[in-house]
Amino acid sequence: MLLTILCISCIQQKQPKEPDPSPNILWIFLEDTAPLLGAYGTTLISTPNIDSLAKQGVVYTNVFMPAPVCSASRSSIITGVMSTTTGTHNHHSSRTEESAIYLPDSLKTIPELFKHAGYFTFNNGKDDYNFMYDRRNLYAQDYKLHPLYGKSGVHVNLDTLKNLQPFFGQIQLKGGKEIFSSTFKNTIKTPVDRSKIVLPPYLPNHPVIVEEYANHLDAIQITDEKIGEIIKALRDNDLLENTVVFFFSDHGMRMTRNKQFLYDGGLQVPLIIADFTKRIDRLEPSTINDNLISGLDIGTGSLALAGIDIPSYMEGQNMFDDAYKRNYVISTRDRCDFTIDRIRSVRSKTYKYIRNFKTDRPYTQPTYMDFDDIEFVKVMHQLHADKKLDSIQDRFMSDERPEEELYHLPSDPFELNNLSKETKYAEVLKEYSTVLNDWIHETDDKGQYPEDEGNLKLMLGIWGQHAVNPEYDALRKKYPNLEGSLVSLKSASAELIRVDD
User: Fold this and answer.
1) Under 8 Å CB-to-CB from 458, ≥6 apart: which residues?
2) Mean pLDDT confidence for 457-471
């Protein structure tokens, strides 16, 4: 009898341990948001929910996006491949059949790989990808289709996900774009004290500029409340303990010299990753990580956390690997809306190298913000005309720009002192220039080739006379009635697409 009991006990002890469940991966994906948060040293605003997320996870302090504009950045992140490699680098491409760009059949997006691994996938909000795709292959939800702004998922409520685990989900938040809400001012509970704002030195201390900056901080406070609601919903529905939460933005804030440009103000974003599963060694709570990280690595790193192999064609890396190390992050700017440009940057922890390929065009050539009559943009132009900007602030407003820029970041974090002409930095300039040249060659950077007519036609049709670049001249002659004829697409209604129809 005793022997039988002992044998049963042995058998029970040898029962294999149940494997840990695959973790849910949730991206809280913001728009146009700078790392102006408590976790990054900002004291003017209260962000208790984001601060709590930071205490639960890792705060990454050196994260830079592949591009400083939504669609190019998002097209890179969701494929794990630079948009310049896939030809999806020009903002709002592939919005019509005539302008269609297709990915190679062999290239599977991040959500497709999750889906193939048995994950339920969804994206609550905009996709904004510059390639053609059947959304049902990426996400399992109804969606809306807008003729200019693309596809966006109809919200999947978190309380429906209990039996749909593991999931790879995205929740898109407006972030810096909260300022566009008609209820924005009424939603702010404790507006930031405008008198305490200290602007970066490249911005003038003008009431309109201060207000724009303050609005961004207030938008972050609104975002913080939404973060609290998301975490509460995960907890209330017993989802949180098996979820890794990524909190980040697609690029920097809307402001002169930031969004759409390759200075850190346009590229640096917050990234907080909180492991509520408590099973991932490299995501210790209340830690700071200063590794140099590309936004490309968010998607590939997510795959790695889920135990999904990262395809060899992806340019993103496993940011959680012990051997992970980036010496440089390369970022790109090409056509943004109707504004045609080409800029490339190479950033290390020590230097930022920028190459301007179209030096015949000023930094401040007409953009969508001129079309929309944005107040702070008008003020900057007026202060420039009235000679009321100092030499640092006025440099960006100049009609000319250098071919190369080089900045020593530890001593010049705002990238103000261009060292490219100083002989003592000649070898550094050569090193970074060579890195960029090699990258352009190795990846066949598509920005070096003229853009196809289809996308440019759409831009000229929507933005009309604001499209002043010489690339539009031939189109004006070829299509004399096109200019401005499609502007109604900006305010068009989106069509609801049912995935089961």
Assistant:
1) 92, 95, 96, 98, 99, 486
2) 96
